[in-house]
Amino acid sequence: MLNRTIEPALKEIDHIDFVAPKKYTVSGRTDLYHMKEVPNETSRFELYFDAGKAKGIDSIAGFVNGLLLSGTPDKNSIEINSQINALGGFLESGISVESATISIYCLKENLIPILTIILDAIQNVAFIEKEVNEFLADRKVGHNVSLEKVGFLAQREFQERLFGSNEIYSKALKPSDFETVSIEKLKEFHSENYLNGLEKVVIVGDLNESEIHSIIEATKPFANTKELSFAKDLSNERGSFAVSKEGALQCAVRIGRILFNKNHEDYLDFLILNTIFGDYFGSRLMSNIREDKGYTYGIGTMVAELNHTGYFMIATEVGKDVLKPTLKEVKYELNRLQTELVGEDELQLVRNYMLGQLLKSADGPYAMTDLFLSVEVHGKGLEFYNLALSKIQNITAERIQELANKYLNWEDMSIVTAG
Amino acid sequence: MIKFERFQLENGLRVLFHKDETTPMSVVNTLYDVGARDESEDKTGFAHLFEHLMFGGSVNIPEFDTPLQMAGGENNAFTSNDITNYYNVLPVNNIETALWLESDRMLSLAFTPKSLEVQRSVVIEEFRQRYLNQPYGDVWLQLRPLAYKEHPYKWATIGKELEPIENATMEDVKAFFKKHYNPSNAILCVAGNLELENVKELVEKWYGSIPAGTKYERNLPKEPIQRELRELTIERNVPNNAFYYAFKMPDRLHPDFFTIDLLSDALGRDKSARLYVTLKKEQQLVADISAYILGSLDEGLLVISGKLNEGITFKQFDNALWALIDELSANKLSDSELDRIMIKFRTAKEFQEQGLLQRAMNLCNYELLGDPDGVNSESEKYHQITTDDILRCAKNILTKSNCSILNIKADKNAK
Fold first, then answer.
1. What is the pLDDT of residues B252-266, one digit of tens each?
2. Is the CB of residue B60 less than 8 Å away from at least one CB of chain A?
């Protein structure tokens, strides 16, 4: 008779294969990374530009990023999009405080034709008045919808408080940005940050050597020739900040502080603390605030990285009537991590969970490339993940407690609520 | 090509095995043939509430998540109007843990009062977060009952309103389990670098002794043929006027299903599609616009939705949209237009099939439709579609008497 109360024996993960993409030099500091080992027809290319939000004021960086394919003297935006769509390309553009990207997903046979269209569009974008006005009107519509969401309001306020010490990093999109932007400013930003701003090219897909070389030749003229400059010593504004939103049924919460990135010696161990606290379904916060109290659909924590620093954040949306008890429980869980040692069962659970997730994040060429890029940007190699493996295997309850006391003090946090 | 093996246990459980030698991970996916369409009208939102309760411990195991995380895995689930799907992704070496957990909750749940109370609150917060506290969040709560008069697609998965969730009792929950959660109503897919014999042995070990239960016979009210244009305008405190045009379309197994999928692509998949180019770029009527199908198993919907530009009236837009539809119903697409749609289809499919989880879910979906190999013949069916087929479907589907229109009027003083 099968005894269902006895769980099957588990096997430990003691080894993970990490595979690096091949590196080529485009020009100067600009590199191309190629992950060739793709067992099917799919491919992806990404262009990273040193054209993040912090490169300009009044949201100019975001506007230019959104207008990159808006038309050249020879082709309008409909024609550019039709050509890309006729080759089956799926386009994504993205911008963060410190970087801007253009990505295309397509079949490998279409990669170079699409890249050629995109590079021409970026090189020659004309910022045609009609296209610019339409784009700004659409952005405004999107922005007005966002302003109705408590999650957006809290996140915006949080960013302002988190980067409070830095005028440029802390600025979010504001209504007047739609009025003060001009064609001249767009052109100026584009020529300064895109025409000579290409930081990195990443290709995933089974392309041959000569194809890679033709991509290197095509992207070379864009290579970044300027020095990189990112904020070093950021500090967050401590204390509580409330944004009011009439009629909201829920209240969004963001709590966090400036922390560090992979270059800090405490980073890896802190990631384990972060997981215990709020980064998986069985975390302290989820167990307490969702699974025990039912205050929320979800609550989580994260560690985000910038070039020279990073930050820690707790995020949730809760019923308006349970905002106070939620904050009380978050504080309680922080305090518990600082005063009580994590039990061995829980520590083992988190070890196994994190190793499984690390195995998953190295699975397949796309995931593996992203995993590689997240160390490459901090000047590290894949050996960092072997270090992560051993840190996870050797973490102790004392170390978790030490880090909680060092980095998770309520009075160091920026606490934002919107609702 | 997705290779698979299929076998069935004596208790009726249908099992698919998909071998992938290239990954250290594995998937255990379980599809239960129950969705919001199987709820009674006074207890809507139940299938989804029940999905939450499936994580509250089973008869022999106090908690679902912890042992799976201990095995290095993670899991989630979703409920649609048609099905409820649970999946686990974990290192293949530990796949037995997922089979142990999934089989125990197929056998029976713990049914603790605490789990019901907590998940009731969580689902109410989910209702608020996703449907009530978002601009345009209640669209489907309004559009479904407009488009459907009899068929249970007239309510959303989350439920018609909060009350049935607030009032759900333990007896309701147990009855729902008994009716829908048994081997004869489930499809299991195991995917990863395993051997068929090994999979058979493990599945037989953990699922073989689960009682078959009574097969649920679905007998849903049939939606009467729509014969008139339906229109509803509601006022909400939202930034822009928004519109939703919902056209009835045939069920998932109908030969025209894929053709209408391509018709929706021609209308509004991307920035080269008819709606975007004509109504946005040329006529400047809308801020955004798109078209898509819901992909329902029973008679479904093709939806055109978007937001109006400032100063444009619903009437102006309506005239322009029907003019565009008239053109699409009078003349065939050009060959290059169909080529463009097909290359995007092919590219999207290649990417989709990269993921082990997606392959496992697709196999279960096709098994539910009657033939798991459908997953492999699907592309060929799409490729056979001609511009004549698309024209015929446009004529049949995109008519006023087949359409339900929901307009959301922006009003600062609305609730």
1. 999 999 999 999 999
2. yes
The residues facing A202 across adjacent strands are A33, A46
**What residues of chain A score a pLDDT lower than 50?**
none
Distant-in-sequence, close-in-space partners of A1: CB < 8 Å, separation ≥ 6: none
Other CB atoms within 10 Å distance of the CB of residue A347:
17
All residues of chain B having their beta carbon less than 8 Å from the beta carbon of residue A39 are 22
Alpha-carbon span A311 to A320, nearest angstrom: 27
> What homologous superfamily does CATH list for A239-418?
Metalloenzyme, LuxS/M16 peptidase-like (3.30.830.10)
Question: Strands B403-410 and B230-236, how do they pair?
Answer: parallel
Q: Cβ of B307 and A282 within 8 Å? A: no
Q: Where do the domains of chain A lie?
A: 22-222, 239-418
The phi, psi pair for B209, rounded to 5°, reads -95, 5
Angle B277-B281-B316 (CA atoms, 0-180°, nearest 5)? 95
Q: Give the gap in angstroms from C-alpha B271 to the nearest C-alpha of chain A.
A: 6
Q: What is the spatial distance between Cα A194 and Cα A124, in angstroms, rounded to a whole number?
A: 11
**Amino acid letter, B114:** K
Interior angle at CA A377, CA A109 and CA A56, nearest 5: 95
Domains, chain B, ordered by start = 5-207 (3.30.830.10), 230-410 (3.30.830.10)
Nearest to A292 among B118, B124, B284 (CB): B118
What are the contacts of B228-232 at 24+ separation with CB within 8 A? B228/B401, B229/B400, B229/B401, B229/B403, B229/B404, B229/B405, B230/B146, B230/B147, B230/B403, B230/B404, B230/B405, B231/B404, B231/B405, B231/B407, B232/B142, B232/B146, B232/B404, B232/B405, B232/B406, B232/B407
Domain A22-222 has CATH 3.30.830.10: yes
Positions in chain B short of pLDDT 50: none
The pLDDT of residue A249 is 87
The contacts of residue B225 (CB under 8 Å, 6+ apart) are: none
Distance between CA B90 and CA A370 in Å, rounded? Answer: 20
Provide, as residue numbers in chain B, all residues whose Cβ is less than 8 Å from the Cβ of A89: 347
Pair A323, A417: CB distance under 8 Å: yes
Contacts of B118 in chain A (CB under 8 A): 290-294
For residue A30, the model assigns a pLDDT of 95
Residue of B205, B275, B349 whose CA lies nearest to A2:
B205
